Amino acid sequence: MEGRQYRLTVDGELSDPAQRAFEGMVLTRTRGSTVLVGRVRDQAALQDLFRRISDLGLKLLEVTVADEAPERRGPAVGDGTTT
């Protein structure tokens, strides 16, 4: 299943333990926020990411679709593979 590439920005710089909640996503900490980028299999997997953000007490600042060229696509979050 292909999924779509998403970019989620949350308020605050996630600690290393908190990053484990977003396995399969690439995280970048910048000036008081954290950007998570990765393939998301479907809407259910996207909702799961939103739930994890909420469960950690994080404030979601922005969500954008950031699809890239098909030849550069990696495994999608929620597809059962690990990175």
Tell me about this structure.
This protein has one domain: YebC, transcriptional regulation domain (Alpha-Beta Plaits, 2-Layer Sandwich), CATH 3.30.70.980. Helix content is 20%, strand content 35%. The protein has helices at 16-19, 43-55; strands spanning 4-11, 26-30, 33-40, 60-65, 76-77. The chain is built from two helices and five strands, in the order E-H-E-E-H-E-E. The mean pLDDT is 85. Strands 1, 2, 3, 4 and 5 form a five-stranded mixed beta sheet that branches. By secondary structure, the protein is α+β, with helices and mostly antiparallel strands. It is globular, with a radius of gyration of 12 Å. The longest helix has 13 residues, at 43-55. The two termini are 16 Å apart. Strand 2 and strand 3 (33-40) form a beta hairpin.
Task: Itemize the secondary structure elements and their pairings.
Blueprint: E1 4-11, H1 16-19, E2 26-30, E3 33-40, H2 43-55, E4 60-65, E5 76-77
Parallel strand pairs: 3-5
Antiparallel strand pairs: 1-3, 1-4, 2-3
Can you summarize this structure?
With 83 residues, the chain is α+β, with helices and mostly antiparallel strands. It is built from 2 helices and 5 strands; from the N terminus they run βαββαββ. It has a single domain (4-69), classed as Alpha-Beta Plaits (2-Layer Sandwich).
